[in-house]
Amino acid sequence: MTDFPFFVTQSRAVSSPSGIPVICGGAYPDTKLCYMLTQYGWELHSAMNVKRSQFGFAYNSFSPDPVFVALGGSVTGADQIEFYHHQYGWKLSDLRLPSYICYSCARFINASTVINSGGSKDCVVPQVDNNSYFITPTSLVRGPSMKVKRADHGCALIKRNSTSSDNVYIIAGGYESSLNQLLSSVEIYDPVSNQWSDGVPLPYPMRSFGMTEDRFGGVLIVGGYTISNPDGVTTIWYLPHGGLDASWILLPQKLSYSHNANTASIVPRALGIF
Question: How far apart are CA 111 and CA 121, in angstroms?
Fold first, then answer.
């Protein structure tokens, strides 16, 4: 895979149904730029209105517009929300998060609604909360509280089972009140019942990993920070499609080197780690 144009960490990546990954934001250097991977390499896609890292970022797979949402982050505008539209690009919303929020995780759960979970309030590590919010271009509503406070966790949207069109939002890992108080717990939000329930825990506590959906409705977790491997790991864990009650499977494939503070996305015929 083509190398990224510059060194960056704490960026966010998503993949469109066509398989084109888009990476936005990041730190070292702080940036508001978004890039997409084409057959010619990485090309500039767009520029957000504010610089962001460690932020909530999601792609809308239900509707062609809005395309993306970006919210929170630790560089500037950590309470600001913006949506990307095909017609006019990134547009800041008049809405504001209740406080500065970093290390949260977001996904569209329908054509217009984003769920954003957890994060560190005011971007201060110990001030982790268990809040969730439902966000549209015109509204922000508090959702049900998660069972556990967490930040720097992963999230994904997966099908309830192999025959249902209903989706559930799954969150995993992260830290609770300090960077070394790691979590292995998994929670699942069901939009039908509007409740959180326990999922199958991760094999061990971890944070700062990439988490993404695959083409078959399963979930992949790549890289990450663990207490015994603070520089990152090379492992890839997989939760099969329809396997919300199944165990996580350690895939035989490994990353070529250790990763943490990374993001991940499915690219054509491959898994991209950035």
Answer: 28
Q: CATH class for domain 12-273?
A: mainly beta
How far apart are the two ends of the chain, measured CA to CA in Å?
Answer: 10
Most confident of 10-19, 102-111, 174-183, 225-234: 102-111
| Residue 3 neighbours by CB under 8 Å, 6+ apart | none
What is the model's pLDDT at position 268? 44
Domain ranges in the chain? 12-273
pLDDT value for 135: 96
8 Å CB contact between 202 and 173: yes
* Type of residue found at 116: N
Q: How confident is the model at residue 257 (pLDDT cuts 50, 70, 90)?
A: low
Cα 30 to Cα 27: distance, rounded to the nearest angstrom: 4
Q: Which of 172, 175, 111, 105 is nearest to 133 (CA)?
A: 105
3-state secondary structure 43-64: EEEEECCCCCCCCEEEECCCCC
Facing residues of 151 across strands?
A: 175
